[in-house]
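User: For documentation purposes, I need each entry recorded in a consistent format: the amino acid sequence on its own, followed directly by the corresponding structure tokens. There are two entries in this batch. Please keep commentary to a minimum and don't merge the entries.

Assistant: Recorded as requested. Entry 1:
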Amino acid sequence: MKRPLADLLSYLMRRPSPPPSPSPPPEEMAEKPKRKHSGWKCMPYIIGNETFEKLAGAGLLANFTVYLVSEFHMKQVEAANVVNIFFGTTNFAPLIGAFLSDAYAGRFNTLAFSSIISFLGMLTLTLSAAVPQLRPPRCPSPAANSVPCPTPSGLHLGVLYLSMALLVVGAGGIRPCSLPFGVDQFDRTSEKDREGLKRFFNWYYFTSTLALFISMTVMVYVQDSISWPIGFGIPTTLMLLALILFFLGTPLYVHVPPNGSVFSGIAQVFVAAFHNRRLPLPSTTAALYNPISHDPFVTPLPPTHTFPFLTKAAILSPSIGSPPNSWRLCTLQQVEEVKCLIRIIPIWASGIICFIALGQQWTFAVLQSMKMNRHLGPHFMIPPGSVGTIAMLGLTLFIPVYDMVIVPIARMITKLEGGITLLQRQGVGLVISIFSMVAAAMVEKKRREKSLEGVAISVLWLMPPLLVMGVAEAFNGVGQIEFYNRQFPEHMQTLAGSLFFCSLAGSSYLSSLLISMVRKATDGEGKRSWLEDDIDEGRVDYFYYLIAGMGVVNLIFFVICASFYRYKGVEEVKVVKEGGGEGDIEVCKVVKS
């Protein structure tokens, strides 16, 4: 199931991508945008476009699992797998979109193309709900219990998967470019524009949060209680309005040209290191290629002793021509940026397991709620797709408490500016996610027992584990994004923004694999698997306990990785001896992060 909560997190904590490094020489200044920064004049178009796009995207897909089960007659577990794979692909796509935007297309062109493709995807999905020939026929009347519901044909699935493919392409361009494109419209050398940029972020986050909440409540209610064509048609119309708003602002936009992708710089370090693999490490850093950068937005990184093989990519050698080939000689800054990325990867991997826990609880909460009493009073019934707003509520309410209460108290104890370190914050989230899964298992056990007795307990029983889940994501999810933004080099901020989505993608794919493995392992002669299509016949509570156990193992892995992690720019006092005692490379320079 998609996690709008995670989408919200990616906007709540993302920071603006700084200009590419290093600064271009004078002869390249002609490539810089000539148009004057319009600042707030552009914001009605950019914020309006983002608000309508978020309303459309979340409103269309928040209830997607229910749509597949009720309209396409998919089995519940099959629908969960389809959704996991779809959202996994959707969250990997921004990595490709970021590369194409930075290297070839530029942010405006990428956003324009992706927005059109997203609209076409939404229109196709809406048609699948509105045109009877594009979806399976209705199920027989309740009286005909022995007649199964019609299964979708190849045409039906073809239209459905076409719409999903278009939505993946659209998300791949919109997600990594939307916020940085807004930042491009401000001149960060101007005090007035720097203040305007802060206001931009406030309004951007506010409208994104509001759009997600409306989508998870109003849109889902329309889909469940009125009709699917209207419930899908409204978001599609809003996406059309987003497109119109975006293009109306075209005369005001600053168009920053593509400046090359960070991926090529990463590849250059590995290629140059392999080419220089037989060279001994020099006795001093003076023998390493370390030109002075005049870019005020880039923090120079001190040389480190870790991964000495990569340091060889920056060794000055007589065989290097002039000007140097970037695939044979890299700057020391490039090398240290790649080292930062390598150190972050194990921490990133641990976050995937956390999102598996959060994502599976979100997914099965929808299926659980369909078996529970969802009435609030005599006239209102909570739509299954809106149950996830409980977790969003937990996140939204807890973040101010964390910032205004927990951080100041922790700061008095630890003397740290953030109260606790970035890794400690993630670790706390991992611990809470384990308790969240245990609580969810206990609630599911009670729900199943009562359901088998013919009693549907209140959907409000799902509130405690979902609220705890929201708190876990406030710690770990927000902590991940802040960690990436602070620990990634400025030159890799686009990659940092995409990495969070890659965590969600990895969790979606692994969730699908885990579901398949559990079904196969627990199904046997004379017994049912834990994950049956009818969750009353399965044991979802056992599945939750399994994920909690995985969380414990993942927590141990995280603690080990965190104990060896070295923060970017922190003083390092080790001295590395290479070349049989020829000399030392001093690496004790201090740079504040």
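Entry 2:
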Amino acid sequence: MEELVGLREGSSGNPVTLQDLWGPCPRIRRGIRGGLEWLKQKLFRVGEDWYFLMTLGVLMALISFTMSFIIRRVVQGSGIPELKTILSGVILEDYLDIKNFGAKVVGLTCTLATGSTIFLGKVGPFVHLSVMIAAYLGRVLTKTTGESENKSKQNELLVAGAAVGVATVFAAPFSGVLFSIEVVSSHFTVWDYWRGFFAATCGAFMFRLLAVFNSEQETITSLYKTNFRVDIPFDLPEIFFFVVLGAICGILSCAYLFCQREFLNFVKINPITSKLLATSKPLYSALAALLLASITYPPGLGRFMASRLSMEEHLDSLFDNNSWALMTRNSSPPWPTEPDPQNLWFEWYHPQFTIFGTLTFFLLMKFWMLILATTIPIPAGYFLPVFIFGAATGRLIGEILSFAFPEGIVAGGATNPIMPGGYALAGAAAFSGAVTHSISTALLAFEMTGQIVHALPILMAVLMANAIAQSFQPSFYDGTIIVKKLPYLPWIRCRKISSHRVIVEHFMNCTITTLAKDMPLEEVVKVVTSTDLAEYPLVESTGTAHNLFELLNLQSLFVTSQGRAVGSVSWVELKKVISNLTNPPAPK
């Protein structure tokens, strides 16, 4: 299309375009255009290729630097152990920096894109992302209101952020708050309670509302739909088997926590793996991912582990209330070319292996494969994998019971078929609760499925599993803190602090600087200027000092006797003493 031209009134007759004629400041625009044309002629006199080559080099240098910068700043793992350390009063540099947000999102997206190959989730990273945003919004609020920084308010936002992180993954606000209380905080103030519930409810509501807007759901429903019987979901004798399932999950969790922690230590001290992790993290990640992908290849061993299912489909299939063992006792369903959304349980069946064989093989393989996956230095969550592992454990027990009692267990003259899906739900809550040392996983199971018919047996299974796990092993997150050597007070297993015959007087520093009421001003100035202390707190307590450090997030405290300062205790000294108590050094 030809450009329209015209004559300006009073001009010499030279035509101009209508854009110049009607545009603002035509003379200035023509001058700028002329200047740019002159500059183009001068610059491109040496050849325009050189400038494009220079631009290419500069851009690639910027991209290279940015990638290196991001890789250095990516916070690996779940992030919950570091958050526990921060809430205990220790400052970790750059952990809550909003600049890490984009790198964490990109890394987590890549992790989730692998599906069930690497078998990792997103709960921990979502908690980290939520806490990052909470910390950033807290700083924005402080600058907006002009108030000074308040550490107590900052911790309130962080705890609420942790609750939101869990709630937005499972659409479970109640268990999200309780999980943040149990796992993230050593002590929880009542003032934070309603704040966490408010934020978690808003997050869970929006998460499910988006599913409705995206036409995935007709209305706001639970994340995983189940069809358990409501009138008689289980018979009274089954309570015993649910408790046994809890004990099995507790024993398995102890084995898993021990092996996972020991393998992490091995990877750190082994000369080959430690060198790879120090200099070639992408290579280590690629080798580990290649091994896991080779094993889970569907036409190969993956055929016996339902590897074609996603992690969400794993749960959907395991929560099925029908007995697969009874359904395949007299028939052999075909293995579809693609997973059937209406019959996902077909992926768990193999004519030579049977349902019991595939579930057992899945548990044996995923036990060590999940441990290996936790060593890969990528943003990933570890709660959902252990939740699925527990569901598979419960499913196996439920299938065995349904096969042993095909008509159900007789109770009061009536029989009701056993629902293996109920055992899968109980196993998921029990094993994940034992690994994380939390009871809120029982409530999470109810919120995820929208049914509470198995409330009593699931809670009993979770309590049994926790009783065993907490007696013998630290939680998954505490174990990670131990392996990473994060600055966190060691865990005292014994509930009675008085059972340890070590008191503050045995290890406190008795050489301290004090200020008396009647001290002259000159001496006060001399004392203050000769020390680096910013404040002089006085604490009078007859307790081993552990509760004070843990509850008040202290770094040091002073010990007094009848108003007289007799010593001081630092956080480092207390940590050393507790470590010697829990892990006594070998005699020389």
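Summary note for entry 2:
The chain has a mean pLDDT of 76.
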